Amino acid sequence: MSDYTKLWENPANPELEVAIQSAEAANVCTAGTRELTPEELEEHLGKVEEYKALLKKQVDERRYIHSLNVADCAKELAELNGVDTGKAYLCGLLHDIEKNRPWDEQERYMEQLGDALPDHVIQNKKLWHAPAGAAFMRDELGILDADMIRAIKYHTTGRPNMSPLEKVLYVADYVSIERDYPGVERVREAAYRNLDEAILIGGRFTLISLLERYRKVNYDTFAMYNEVAELMGEQFEAAAAKEEAEARAKVAKVDAPH
Fold first, then answer.
1. How high is the mean pLDDT of the chain?
2. Exposed e or buried b per residue across 17-28, where buried means at least 16 C-beta atoms within 10 angstroms of its C-beta
3. Which of 11-25, 130-144, 203-217, 239-253 has the lowest mean pLDDT?
4. Mean per-residue pLDDT for 56-85?
5. Domains of the chain (ranges plus CATH)?
6. What is the rounded distance in angstroms from the CA atom of residue 160 to the CA atom of residue 251?
7. 41 band by pLDDT with thresholds 50, 70 and 90
8. CA separation for the pair 178, 70 (Å, rounded)
């Protein structure tokens, strides 16, 4: 493993604060990039079939179908949330382009991205494909849009302070049509109503799943969840309390002597 420079060297900081700080350094990988012009975006959209053919060579059939589904879902969610549908579609199509590639290739593209990645990413190979895919899109396909690069880099872990495009891709990856994990319908329903609501519900599922399996929790995911929980948590807590009270009232009514 190559010697990566740590972003932050203050061991006195709580791990969550380190995560927030590292997420705020997301611009590192986009230095020198810029927003695509409408003409440049149109040019890349004109290469969709070419990108699909490349994707089919890069990933297995299951991942290929997933990528097509995420692209379609991202486009729908983008339209609902005032996000550029072309950028969302391309991000959905290309987000997993490094998913099935050899580890040494993924590591090479991670280094090429130019980020000082935090240890919790370097130590978990399942996360490598996201920063590697961001570098591939930037350097091999010439898609230099900073927001798109960040969206792919963080599509697996999420992060605090995500842009609307980042949220669209994160949620689309979570609820694409072939997903069938327990509770997906609830997240999917929320996704078409409110992206933050979907992130809160989906993030809760992710955290519970990791904790139940005694897995490490990615700090960026934790920070993202806390950010959205602060925004919407009280609303959900109140709704849950009301639902519980109504259920108890129904039970009490049934059990009451006639």
1. 84
2. ebbbbbbeebee
3. 11-25
4. 98
5. 15-183 (1.10.3210.10)
6. 41
7. very high
8. 9
